[in-house]
Amino acid sequence: MLTLKELKKVVKVAGMTKRVPSEKALEKEEIVVKEILSGECDITVYANGYVLYRENGKKTIFPLHSCKDYQYMDVKEDRSIMNEEFFDNENWYIRLLMEATDRMEINQTKVASNHRLVSYSDYADDRILLLDPASDFLDQYIEKEMVRDFLGCLTARQKEIIQLFYFEEMNQEKIADYLGIRQQSVCEMMQRALSVMKKHADKEEN
């Protein structure tokens, strides 16, 4: 049995500041290990450090080494944590499967609000849900890795949150815990920051 600890030793750490590759791009990469869980579900780890999980026509891609501690809600609805070491000697795909199914569930969540929300699973962290006005900016500029060029137009706190999200691969919940603020505040500041960055990007284009 290949363990997760053994797998992490032989697979390179994916570049954290780069865009997550597409499924098509991964086809060119060497497969390190693959598990077919059912006829419509499989999980694959590639030599470049990324994991591809597919289920019933849907997919999610994420860095192998981003799978560390696992947070979950217990039966009492209290937040609990399973430490990274817990999974080290388990079958390699157990922790990855938990990560993948969580990401798939979040990506498919429909949020009822005055704005239509979209999920960006192709970028550094596919857990984030962003408002549509920022989506054009994300499609155009995150893909070209130009976020850094517009950090100077943000406040210190906005810049910190954007850096934690895009370059440290922290999701909203982790950023909120790290900064000691509410997750809703993180979401709102990200939206304002992206709006400011979009305006500056538009000015440069005109």
TrEMBL record:
Highest taxon of source: Bacteria
InterPro entries, alphabetized: RNA_pol_sigma-70_dom, RNA_pol_sigma70_r4, RNA_pol_sigma_r3/r4-like
GO molecular-function terms, A-Z: DNA-binding transcription factor activity
Residues of the RNA polymerase sigma-70 region domain: 151-199
A Pfam cross-reference name: Sigma70_r4
Gene Ontology biological-process annotations: DNA-templated transcription initiation
Name of the molecule in the record: Sigma-70 family RNA polymerase sigma factor
